[in-house]
Amino acid sequence: NVIIDDCIVGPSSQEVPVRATFSHARFLEFYTQRLIPYGFAREPDKFKDDLLELLHDTISFSDRPDSDATLQEVFERLSEAMQVFRAYYLYNAEPVGSKNQTLLEEATRLFSNPTKLPDGSVVYGIVFNRLGVPMTDENFLGSGREVKNIKLTNVIIRDLHANPLEVAALMTEDNTMLQGPVRDVIAIHEITTDNTRSLGASFYKGNLLVDAYLAFWKLSNTFYNIRVFSSTCGNFGSNATFDMNLKLYPSYQEQTCAQLGSKTDEDLTGREVTMLNKRYFGGLQLTQKFYEWATSTDGPRIGLDKLLASPPSADDLRSGGRHRFVCSHDTMFHPMHGIVGLKFVEASNVRVRGLTIENYHNKADFVTWVCNQKWQIAESGEDVMAMTKSTGPPQASSVRGVEVIRSDNMHFNDVSIKHLTSDEGFVNAIDMMGDNNDRTDHDDDTGVSFKKVSIESLSAGRGALPITLDATPLSANGITYKDVEEIDPSLRNPRVVLNYQAKDAGPPTYLDLDVADPVELLMMLTDEVDTIEKMNEWRRSVLEFLKQHFGICFEDNAIEKYGPLDDIPAFTKDCQPTDSFVRGLRKMDTSIFQYHASSICITDASGRESNCSDAVIAPVHTFDFVFVVGPSGYTFHGVFGSDQGQLGTIGSRILCGMYIFEGLPVPGYGPPYNNVVVKFYGECPADDRPIATPGLQGSYINCALESNLFGKGQATGGYVVDFDNPLTNLLPRNITIPRISGYPTMRFDDFVNDPRPSSKKTNFLDDIKEYIKYNDVRFTFMVDGTYKTRLSGREVMPYMHIHHYTHEAAVLFFKERTSFQTDEAILDLRRDFLERLKSQFMISVIGDVSQYDEIPVDGVIDLGGGNIIVGYVVNEDANQRVLTKQGRPGQQTASMPPGSRLHEGGFRLVVGRSGIDTFDGRAPFGATIMQGVYVMENGNSDGTDAEISFHSIGIVELNSWSTSVVHQKLYHDEYGDGLLYSAQPMPLVDADGIHLKYVGVLVFADGP
User: Fold this and answer.
1) Which are the contacts of 382, defined by CB distance < 8 A and separation ≥ 6?
2) Overall average pLDDT of the 749-760 stretch
């Protein structure tokens, strides 16, 4: 029986200074500084001295092989760091001496909480729960057995805020988590050298806490050996640890335990041994393989792939020989649940009158990068993906006002639920889960009823619902709601949008090695690769990425055998020699390929509040290693090519490298503005393919990104090389070369707990700024929607069937969204398209365009051979939307309002199986030519929607990697003539559907 009257719950704290790691460190400090010294000193005399001496055993770590420390020193270092951290953040006490300064820096990275919000799995207002944790851990035998007769009157639960952090951890095959003494799991992605990008080069990168875990685990093992297991016979009679060699002795040579020097403790039983270990080491669970990964200093360092690979022996598998990534939990393995205002579990006879739930905000990431990634172990071809503790969508970022689980006889009266927000997840004002395994061995539900329930102002990155229902008898009368966002809008802006470009520049050209040593220059520009050890670590991560993502094999000692500037030969998956290779480090000549960042926008987790730089010219140093396919070709495997492989032809290349931007004004990090460093890893081979317009050639980039400042991201963009209009006077070198323009975009949407800007600032490229060209206006758009089908045709056609609605859908688009309000106006557009196909693309089969006038504007023009022309409109599930509007240098860049869709419709020619003759020869099946209209929401200078006409410059067709480059001419009444550039990589298809992932730009009017 529970009665709660006139109660206010909230607000939750928004001044939480530390992460959960600080709590873990406090518990570990208690064990190492108090329990163990105190307890060891009071062990029986025959063990005491040996046990205390264990604290002087030494340990080394694989990332610091020359720095041995005693276990006690490791523990004390953690304790000292905590004291310095406490003193600094509680009392503003500056650290004294370089040692304490270093400890403070390390402790700040480990403990500091930049959001100041709780990072645990859930923030509750009020929970009514049966005995145990608020989740299912027993069969359901009817509601009200432990929770019943509850009355709430005039209760307010308000202002709950949280940023739950999903932790990617490791577990063994028997589902044992690797953890510290108090169920504190280890965030594996925080302790690897390359943030788990490659696995093979994901080496241990220690911190104060995990170093102490490892020392603690070593101590626990040596303690057990001495206290329990120190002789051939063991320390208690039931442990059955006799030396197997005793069985080989002739009967007359058998020895007793006493003769073998046993220290048998006759007082110990099996249970007491277990409790003895828990007394000093709690629930500590690590494995020998994990310990060796982190501490081995003999021979090459061990990659994380060795922990995740399946061992050849089932016995090894059962004894912790294989580890798994596991997600959907917090740092103590609690399942993620976000924010919940009021929760009932298996309750009965509940009366709620006068309930207010308001102002909840969850800022969590929808999913951690590691938990949504796929790798392949090169040696075995074994796929690696994270497992989850629970099924269904991730819940870290969810918000629920009222949650009811398997409860009945509940009545809600006079309830107000309002202002619930999730930046990236789901919002459910009322979430009802009944007994979906209903049987006859308990009473039937009598249901839940509502009266005078008001729901308003729900907002969520992946959809908001006033009520969700699963198998509960429900009387829903009396619920009203307003201002509830659409389900699954997914139209928020990424956290970081970095626009960069090269306009009317020369093609990518590399500096001669006798002009500049790229290794020496790179070390001057960034502290991430300022030693040869760091350089080799980065090179190894590149080779391991190529190995796991593409199945490319290299010599085991390639990094030691070849220098940074040397070409490294590549071998097949079966380690046979090839004529393909990884070209050594080179630096691009920025004076010719005038690559530069043009703007950057930083957006909060909701995607609504942004801070953008002015449009700028921030030149970029580009360093790269390039895998080059030789004359014999190369068959890619790994994650990209899978077991069957994909053949790369001569000249195909994969770029991995580093961008270093000078003078990029990142909001919140200056002035002065230090260099911005971003590593890139090509996820798709690139090639140069002629666009079906004489003199043009298209290319693209599609790269995964790593940044200590922005986290993990993606860079995509298209380039066009113009041979017919070369640069006849490219300053400052005054040479004649082809003209290239490209407008890629970086997007980062990763929560970074410890953003680390570069410490170096250079201005080596200032002298080229005056020669760099720009546009008056650049709009950057993104397409990242999901189609709920797996029928994609992604390897055949640049535009999947589901991407375009056709026939009457196109006419509806014209009449509802554009100035083409009549059939005659739409017909005029189609005639213009037919004339363009005939005159520009030389498709002679069209003939007299007037012959098609009798075909309705929502009909199909059949040119024969499967070649058809039809009206189309882009499916809005594509989430095609504009992110930023950038002007001339010095003008403020604008982050477009969230959900500024880029609607697209028009007419298209899709080439059939017989192909069709064009000015560029026979166009292949699936190739597409388009003409139509974009409607950009909020695109005009006055904030109204912008109507932009477009037509294809070249034929859009797929290359060998199912990637296309789109190049179009544009016109807008205000902005004038323009161009569209877009690279469209092959979409990902999985159990959830077809996931699009491409970006593009619309640029208007030339600058100088």
Assistant:
1) 309, 310, 376
2) 89
